[in-house]
């Protein structure tokens, strides 16, 4: 079933683009079909065009699931608009399905009457069977709820590349560029930037084949009779300045580089590859000229030990991982608490437990971040909330680590790590100076008049101990995991001293609450319902709150970047609302903390599907809370 219209040549030439405010496009195909690349190029060109955008790459969990199966489907969703947006869209307006498995996996996401573009060449016996179809869904009314356009992408790509001498099987690998060209025409995206990019990425016949397929797809949209007209999303009116399209992992890596510059310290990253954090290691390894040193360790434990050793030697010590690695690094993190050294552990969360859903997003590591160490071992937790904001979150985590001489856990997640959005490049002059002095002289005079260095004398404001680089003349000192005597740093088994040290380490973290911004209310301070969010729920909450308020319903929202300690005014703010809802991609971990700390009747909104919240889900939760409250 094909949506076709008979147009004359003159009418085809006069098909002017229809202006629309936004569109959500989802590319879906086998994991070998290049859907991530296709979506990334469509996103990049839209960013160059000036649109605001938000993306959601969706990878298969297996490294290479059987080709043509639902488990092997890779998708990329992008939302482009002429106004400010925060989410990749609840439901695609357009689904490009490269094979039956992609159709089966993602059709339920497409809005009713949405545009479905399928590669009809792939809808044959074996491919249908592997996807679990007992019939061809293109041949009956199965897709009657959608506007279906069948395009033989594979054979058209082979036809376009045949004059180049490309073999049919090799030509098939370029069909993703045919799809990109077609959708680029449909939404008035220029293809020349992609042609230039292909020239830098590929060589020889592969380059020529991809360019030919891209142009063939674009020209097919222009000359075929399958579409009434193209569409256009005008550039967004964003604040003036220079922008770049950035993913969360790259923004976080750049934030760590910036933190090193702002701290006037070399950055050391000890890391072991793990999805979805590996791109931070890849990105940082490119920037040795900024004083960044990266080591791919033999395992997670070694990576953490290297980073802590670097911190002892006067570097900004960083280690990156995901949930399983946090567990393995817990002993070293506890040691960092005892040593009181600046050490940043970046946790890019994913679905768990164990290997779980390595390519799917979740935010269920708050418990391990809070409590995943032995003994009383408190530390600050900073949570990034958008891809671009990962830059600022990285700087803030490093600031706290350096100023308070403490390990810090920085939480991101797979949704932020792989998602992208336009980022307004900051003026370097506006970034904070987070440098701290090294101890270079003795700091204590003994009873006999001898000058000494005491490694655990504390700053009266921050309770941070001094930081002396090993080898500094006259500042020989000992650190280790056995309990220290306050001040001298000597080993102590005294019950009274241990009590004192436990309370001092907790008090140091508690004082951070006075060094972070107060919690603020977005929306209506006199509303009955307040949403309390943290991490990547920010995007869906923002959209849900805006829509709810536009509909005339009052609602408030508080979002946390500092999860431990929390802002000192948070309890008072939460107690001013009748209903507190806590959306989380877990089973209510922050909600339990809030209920325990502030004794408010907070209610969790939970989701553990490996997917982010949609704004509609949160809108419904707000309405349910208001309805429930009205019924009492």
TrEMBL record:
<dbReference type="InterPro" id="IPR022367">
    <property type="entry name" value="2-oxoacid/accept_OxRdtase_asu"/>
</dbReference>
<dbReference type="InterPro" id="IPR002869">
    <property type="entry name" value="Pyrv_flavodox_OxRed_cen"/>
</dbReference>
<protein>
    <submittedName>
        <fullName>Unannotated protein</fullName>
    </submittedName>
</protein>
<dbReference type="Pfam" id="PF01558">
    <property type="entry name" value="POR"/>
</dbReference>
<dbReference type="InterPro" id="IPR050722">
    <property type="entry name" value="Pyruvate:ferred/Flavod_OxRd"/>
</dbReference>
<dbReference type="GO" id="GO:0016903">
    <property type="term" value="F:oxidoreductase activity, acting on the aldehyde or oxo group of donors"/>
</dbReference>
<dbReference type="GO" id="GO:0006979">
    <property type="term" value="P:response to oxidative stress"/>
</dbReference>
<dbReference type="Pfam" id="PF01855">
    <property type="entry name" value="POR_N"/>
</dbReference>
<dbReference type="InterPro" id="IPR029061">
    <property type="entry name" value="THDP-binding"/>
</dbReference>
<feature type="domain" description="Pyruvate/ketoisovalerate oxidoreductase catalytic">
    <location>
        <begin position="32"/>
        <end position="218"/>
    </location>
</feature>
<feature type="domain" description="Pyruvate flavodoxin/ferredoxin oxidoreductase pyrimidine binding">
    <location>
        <begin position="266"/>
        <end position="486"/>
    </location>
</feature>
<dbReference type="InterPro" id="IPR009014">
    <property type="entry name" value="Transketo_C/PFOR_II"/>
</dbReference>
<dbReference type="InterPro" id="IPR002880">
    <property type="entry name" value="Pyrv_Fd/Flavodoxin_OxRdtase_N"/>
</dbReference>
<keyword id="KW-0560">Oxidoreductase</keyword>
<dbReference type="InterPro" id="IPR019752">
    <property type="entry name" value="Pyrv/ketoisovalerate_OxRed_cat"/>
</dbReference>
């Amino acid at each position: 079933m094909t949506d076709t219209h008979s147009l004359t040549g003159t009418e085809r030439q006069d098909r002017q683009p229809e202006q629309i405010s936004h569109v959500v496009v989802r590319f879906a195909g086998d994991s070998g079909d290049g859907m991530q690349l296709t979506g990334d190029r469509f996103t990049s060109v839209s960013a160059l065009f000036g649109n605001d955008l938000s993306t959601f790459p969706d990878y298969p969990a297996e490294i290479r699931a059987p080709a043509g199966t639902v488990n092997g489907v890779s998708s990329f969703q992008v939302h482009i608009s002429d106004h400010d947006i925060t989410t990749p869209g609840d439901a695609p307006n357009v689904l490009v399905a490269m094979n039956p498995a992609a159709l089966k996996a993602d059709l339920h996401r497409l809005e009713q009457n949405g545009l479905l573009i399928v590669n009809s060449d792939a809808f044959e016996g074996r491919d249908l069977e592997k996807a679990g179809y007992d019939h061809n869904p293109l041949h009956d009314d199965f897709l009657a709820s959608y506007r279906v356009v069948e395009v033989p992408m594979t054979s058209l790509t082979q036809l376009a590349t045949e004059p180049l001498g490309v073999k049919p099987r090799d030509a098939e690998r370029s069909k993703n560029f045919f799809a990109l060209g077609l959708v680029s025409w449909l939404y008035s995206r220029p293809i020349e930037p992609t042609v230039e990019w292909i020239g830098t990425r590929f060589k020889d016949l592969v380059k020529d084949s991809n360019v030919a397929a891209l142009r063939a797809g674009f020209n097919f949209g222009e000359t075929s009779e399958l579409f009434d007209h193209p569409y256009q999303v005008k550039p967004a009116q964003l604040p003036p300045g220079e922008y770049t399209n950035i993913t969360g992992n790259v923004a976080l890596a750049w934030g760590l580089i910036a933190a090193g510059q702002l701290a006037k310290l070399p950055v050391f990253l000890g890391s072991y590859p793990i999805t979805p954090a590996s791109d931070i290691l890849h990105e940082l390894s490119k920037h040795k000229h900024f004083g960044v040193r990266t080591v791919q360790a033999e395992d997670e434990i070694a990576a953490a030990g290297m980073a802590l050793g670097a911190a002892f030697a006067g570097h900004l010590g960083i280690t990156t991982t995901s949930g399983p690695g946090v567990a393995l690094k817990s002993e070293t993190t506890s040691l960092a608490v005892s040593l009181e050294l600046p050490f940043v552990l970046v946790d890019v969360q994913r679905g768990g437990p164990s290997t779980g859903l390595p390519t799917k997003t979740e935010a269920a590591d708050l418990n391990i971040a809070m409590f995943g160490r032995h003994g009383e071992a408190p530390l600050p937790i900073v949570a990034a909330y958008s891809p671009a904001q990962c830059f600022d979150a990285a700087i803030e985590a490093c600031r706290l680590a350096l100023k308070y001489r403490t390990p810090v856990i920085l939480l991101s997640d797979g949704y932020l790590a792989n998602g992208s959005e336009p980022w307004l490049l900051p003026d370097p002059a506006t970034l904070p100076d987070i440098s701290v002095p090294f101890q270079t002289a003795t700091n204590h005079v003994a009873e006999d008049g001898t000058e000494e260095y005491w490694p655990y004398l504390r700053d009266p404001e921050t309770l941070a101990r001094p930081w002396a680089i090993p080898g500094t003349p006259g500042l020989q000192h000992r650190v280790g995991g056995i309990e220290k005597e306050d001040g001298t740093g000597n080993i102590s088994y005294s019950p009274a001293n241990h009590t004192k040290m436990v309370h001092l380490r907790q008090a140091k973290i508690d004082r951070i609450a006075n060094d972070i911004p107060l919690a603020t209310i977005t929306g209506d301070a006199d509303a009955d319902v307040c949403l309390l969010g943290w991490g990547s729920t920010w995007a869906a909450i923002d959209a849900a709150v805006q829509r709810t308020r536009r509909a005339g319903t009052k609602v408030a929202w508080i979002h946390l970047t500092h999860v431990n300690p929390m802002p000192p005014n948070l309890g008072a703010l939460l107690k001013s609302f009748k209903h507190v809802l806590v959306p989380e991609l877990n089973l209510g971990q922050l909600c339990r903390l809030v209920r325990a700390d502030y004794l408010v009747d907070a209610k969790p909104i939970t989701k553990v599907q490996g997917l982010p919240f949609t704004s509609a889900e949160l809108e419904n939760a707000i309405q349910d809370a208001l309805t429930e409250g009205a019924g009492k």
